[in-house]
Amino acid sequence: MTKKLMGIIFFMVLATSLLQAHAPKKNELNFDRQALSLKVKTLHKVGNVKNHHVKSIVVQLNGQSIASQSFAEQQNEEFQEWEFKFGPEVSLPKGAELTVISTCNIIGRKKTTITLE
Known about the structure:
By secondary structure, the chain is of the alpha+beta class. It has one domain (23-115): Sandwich (Immunoglobulin-like). The protein is 16% helix and 44% strand. It has one helix and seven strands; from the N terminus they run αβββββββ. A four-stranded antiparallel β-sheet has the order 4-3-6-7, with no helix packed on it. A hairpin with a 2-residue loop joins strand 3 and strand 4. The protein is elongated, with a radius of gyration of 18 Å. The N and C termini lie far apart (65 Å).
């Protein structure tokens, strides 16, 4: 009986934690052609920035990964921001697609794509 009760308690704690976890809500992207930079703001409201946060942001160009950044905690309870700066060796032609994938450390991710102008 004790093992069964402990199992039920463990399951309830786990279920409660997962119910509070959620994927990032939105990626706001701002590409600056002159500066060759991409500013990413991932909206992800959390209660504890150390335990529940955006763990990574990956940038893809036409489906190929060109940059990424990992985080040990979120910068605040509302969002995570990061600016990616690209050198001249990275070709960012007009019409190319930039995709940003922001991943939560617990569950889910948000994928956003823009077409470069």
